[in-house]
Amino acid sequence: ILNVEQSPQSLHVQEGDSTNFTCSFPSSNFYALHWYRWETAKSPEALFVMTLNGDEKKKGRISATLNTKEGYSYLYIKGSQPEDSATYLCAFIDNAGNMLTFGGGTRLMVKP
Amino acid sequence: EAQVTQNPRYLITVTGKKLTVTCSQNMNHEYMSWYRQDPGLGLRQIYYSMNVEVTDKGDVPEGYKVSRKEKRNFPLILESPSPNQTSLYFCASNPGQGIYEQYFGPGTRLTVT
After folding, report:
1. Which residues pair with B22 in a beta bridge?
2. I need a labelling partner for B27 at 20 to 30 A (CA). Which of A16, B14, B34, B110 fits?
3. What is the pLDDT of residues A21-80, one digit of tens each?
């Protein structure tokens, strides 16, 4: 079983704060990294799929970077809003390409 | 509307009584998976299927069976459920593995007493 870790486990911020969290994964045999947003009582929804070292992706106020050589990805949220409150999951795929291994998630709570 | 559906959404059953959770997708996706989500453990893959009649074990396959007789359907079968299979289950599909995002179903909350 591959080791994919996310930190912190949970995070409380005030509305308007910018925040970031980390996903660490094995640096060998990298194929792709996914980020998902999971709101309470809903299903996870994809944010980004990243495949290249140095990749940067952006969707509105949310962006992500990828470093495959050192085995980490950062997710950034600029100017957090209460509706950003969710659990953010990363998932690693090795070069066999068939299985996603999820991290434990970072639970973000944004206070108005 | 493109979607993944699961049924039932909630199920309470007793130890040893066989059950099936259905999963269906209308996006013509080749790849389908089942996950379970437990507090503190994140999402763990149970089984996946790369195409019709092609299935393989994920990280936690013990106690589960799957089948993929049609492209759109990927049922999860618990032949003899036990309390440690009480969990939240998600089905997901995508066009192929790796670089394609997964589309998740709404989840099935299973309680085995």
Report:
1. B7
2. B110
3. 999 999 888 999 999 999 988 999 999 999 999 999 999 999 999 999 999 999 999 999
One-letter amino acid of A30: F
Is a pLDDT exceeding 70 seen at residue B18? yes
Question: What is the DSSP code (8-state) at residue B73?
Answer: B
Q: Please check whether residue B113 touches A, CB under 8 A.
A: no
- pLDDT surpasses 70 at A1: no
pLDDT at position B23: 98
Helix or strand (DSSP H, E) at A107: strand A106-111
- Is residue B34 within 8 A of residue B45, CB to CB? The reply is yes
Interface residue B97 vs chain A (CB under 8 A): yes
Structure tokens at A80: 């957090």
Cα B40–B43–B47 angle (5° rounding)?
140
The amino acid occupying position B46 is I
CA dihedral sign of residues B97, B102, B106, B108: positive
CA-nearest residue to B89 within chain A is A43
Inter-chain Cβ pairs, chain A and chain B, closer than 8 A: 58
Strand A10-14 and strand A106-111: pairing?
parallel
